[in-house]
Automatic annotation (TrEMBL):
Residues 41-167 form the VTT domain. The chain crosses the membrane at residues 21-40, 60-84, 147-169, 181-199. Pfam families: VTT_dom. Its main location: membrane. Residues 212-225 have a biased composition (Low complexity). This is VTT domain-containing protein. PANTHER family: INNER MEMBRANE PROTEIN DEDA-RELATED, TRANSMEMBRANE PROTEIN. InterPro entries: DedA-like, VTT_dom. It is found in: Cell membrane.
Amino acid sequence: MTLALGPSWLDPDYLLNTFGIWGLLLIVFAESGLLIGFFLPGDSLLFTTGLLITAGTLDFPLWGAVGLICLAAILGDQAGYVFGKKVGPSLFRRPDSKLFKQENVQKAHEFFEKHGPKSLVLARFVPIVRTFTPIIAGVSGMKYRSFITFNVIGGVLWGAGVTLLGSWLGNIAFVHKNIEAILILIVLISVVPIAIEFLRARGKSKKAAAQAEPGTAPDTAGAPAQRGRHAKR
């Protein structure tokens, strides 16, 4: 077990040492649009890739890795969009299983409805949501021209941005000495949007429940009579 990411087989170092750059690309593709990829450690994996390349531990050109990562992310979203368009509303009727939860689909749907096409960019930086958002875009019938535009923008910003951040911080000795803490920080930052949305939704539900309780609604029963008496005066 690793402190930052739970099971050892999800540890970025283990994944990169075992499967190399090509395994990384497959993971990025799966997490970007395949239902089975929502649990994969995309952010920390990209960050670690940039760090290891800079440190010389991973023997692969940085810009080559960045280009391939962006391509895998874009193609992954493309696959998710096509899947959503083919499957359609039946996705919302699919029963829960160990790897599939309707809750994840609903969260992505709400995220997409709230942010529109730009959700394809924003969702890249939100774990779980980034897997389901391109599928929801396909389900909703989003115009392909808009989809591919925001897909490319999001894929490049996420794939290149997080990898280059790891590369840049890889030159700092403090990062190498505290890589475990850095990975924990990345995981925490990546789940902040989910936590905010959860707390916001919880607050709305509590507010709605309070308003629905008997006796909390404003008493307007006597208002017409009062207005009538005032009018007679």
